[in-house]
């Protein structure tokens, strides 16, 4: 009889009452969507095997957060070689820049990303000046293109989107620029840009855009009247259209 597949992760739980971070090993059994947890500090079982019907393999990647019995757990690494080999390829990340010209169509582009199997990891509205453009994209782009890019991205709000899926960078470039991704015109579609050429460059770009403080010069992101605000909770985003 074949053994059931088990994916294992190291997770962190921040305890509000004490301000401490505790580490656990989280095992996920995709055959029946169950989980169990081991306390790494005290070397003992913390949570017996329990079904989590709403948890999917696609939710489990480094940097993601899962909720187990009201515990907010952040996945920080794979716990074994089997899990790393099986799932690390699914979590390649890339960055797409939606320019001020394309922000009105942002919903259309985000829908296309999801239709092509991408998971949205980060999304941020930015107001950039020419110095920002050089700071955040010079590692991915030749100098001769930076001035033209700056003239486009500094004309209003720009949306940066970090996406994840298997072969994310090549799939995204093919979506935006067509099949000839080795010889394409960067400015053929000025609504959206893929500026990182490799997964490594995309990781650097994502860190600069999402993990560092941008100089936003205290600009308001909106200036509208007679409007309302809708907040969509993460579990609703994960479940997709009803």
UniProtKB/TrEMBL annotation:
Entry keyword Cytoplasm: yes
Subcellular location: Cytoplasm, Cytoskeleton, Cilium axoneme
Keyword Cytoplasm: yes
Residue ranges annotated for the DM10 domain, each copy included: 3-91
UniProt-listed SUPFAM superfamilies: Nucleoside diphosphate kinase, NDK (SSF54919)
Principal localisation: cytoplasm
Signal peptide: none
GO annotation, cellular component aspect: axonemal microtubule
Record-linked InterPro entries: DM10_dom, NDK-like_dom, NDK-like_dom_sf
Gene3D superfamilies per the UniProt record, alphabetical: 2.30.29.170, Nucleoside diphosphate kinase-like domain
Keywords: Cell projection, Cytoplasm, Cytoskeleton
Family: Belongs to the NDK family.
Name the UniProt record assigns to this protein: DM10 domain-containing protein
Organism: Mesocestoides corti
């Amino acid at each position: 009889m074949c053994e059931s597949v088990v994916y294992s992760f190291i997770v962190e739980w921040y305890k509000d009452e004490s301000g401490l971070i505790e580490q656990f090993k989280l095992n996920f059994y995709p055959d029946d969507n169950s989980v169990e947890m081991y306390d790494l500090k005290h070397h003992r079982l913390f949570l017996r095997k329990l079904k989590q019907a709403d948890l999917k393999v696609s939710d489990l990647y480094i940097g993601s957060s899962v909720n187990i019995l009201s515990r907010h757990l952040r996945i920080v690494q794979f716990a074994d070689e089997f899990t790393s080999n099986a799932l690390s390829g699914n979590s390649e990340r890339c960055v797409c820049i939606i320019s001020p010209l394309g922000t009105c169509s942002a919903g259309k582009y985000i829908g296309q990303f999801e239709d092509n199997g991408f998971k949205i990891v980060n999304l941020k509205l930015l107001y950039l000046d020419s110095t920002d453009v050089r700071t955040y994209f010079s590692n991915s782009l030749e100098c001769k293109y930076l001035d033209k890019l700056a003239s486009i991205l500094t004309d209003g709000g720009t949306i940066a989107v970090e996406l994840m899926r298997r072969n994310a960078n090549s799939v995204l470039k093919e979506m935006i620029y067509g099949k000839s991704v080795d010889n394409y015109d960067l400015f053929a579609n000025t609504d959206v840009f893929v500026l990182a050429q490799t997964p490594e460059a995309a990781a650097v770009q994502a860190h600069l855009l999402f993990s560092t403080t941008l100089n936003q010069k205290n600009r308001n992101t909106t200036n509208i009247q007679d409007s309302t605000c809708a907040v969509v909770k993460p579990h609703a985003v994960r479940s997709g259209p009803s």
